């Protein structure tokens, strides 16, 4: 009688692989759970940075051209409060984002403003010509 050799894994080897994969998953899973919150905060920080940059570029452009708040120029925006900064942002403020309004008191005043989305907040500075 010829017995053929069968090659394969035993049941205990398969169970051990499954146990090892389970332990690795239990250790790695908590590291990926908080990625969603970090991504939301990073998105809000990115929009805040864009708003701050748009405000500074708009201010520099208006100042270089000698414009005042009364000057009408379709390429620049008169910024009197934090919400006006969204108009200086190319493409406008993304949907779902809210800017907390604060009045910018006088020319060259830098004001701290807050942008909020998905329960996350970030600060940005606005420079206005009022």
Describe the protein's topology:
Elements: H1 11-33, H2 35-64, H3 85-88, E1 98-100, E2 109-117, E3 120-128
Antiparallel strand pairs: 1-2, 2-3
Structure description:
- The chain is of the alpha+beta class and 130 residues long.
- It has one domain.
- It is built from three helices and three strands.
- A three-stranded antiparallel beta sheet has the order 1-2-3.
State the gist of this model.
The chain has 130 residues and is α+β, with helices and mostly antiparallel strands.
Provide tags for this entry.
three-stranded antiparallel β-sheet, 130 residues, alpha+beta
Largest sheet report = 3 strands, antiparallel
Percent range for helical residues? 40-55%
Order of helices and strands: HHHEEE
| Overall radius of gyration | 28 Å
Which structural category do the helix and sheet elements fall into? alpha+beta
Could you list the spans in which at least 5 consecutive residues all have pLDDT below 50? none
What best-fitting shape do the alpha-carbon axes yield? rod-shaped
SS element count, helices:
3
């Amino acid at each position: 009688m010829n017995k053929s050799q069968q090659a394969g894994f035993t049941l205990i080897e398969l169970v051990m692989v499954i146990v090892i994969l389970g332990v690795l998953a239990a250790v790695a899973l908590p590291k990926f759970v908080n990625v969603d919150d970090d991504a939301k905060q990073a998105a809000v920080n990115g929009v805040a940075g864009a708003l701050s940059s748009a405000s500074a570029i708009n201010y520099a452009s208006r100042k270089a051209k000698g414009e005042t708040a009364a000057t009408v120029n379709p390429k620049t925006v008169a910024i009197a409060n934090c919400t006006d900064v969204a108009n200086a942002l190319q493409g406008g403020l993304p949907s779902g984002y809210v800017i907390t309004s604060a009045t910018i008191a006088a020319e060259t005043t830098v004001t701290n403003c807050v942008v909020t989305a998905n329960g996350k907040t970030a600060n940005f500075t606005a420079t206005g010509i009022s």
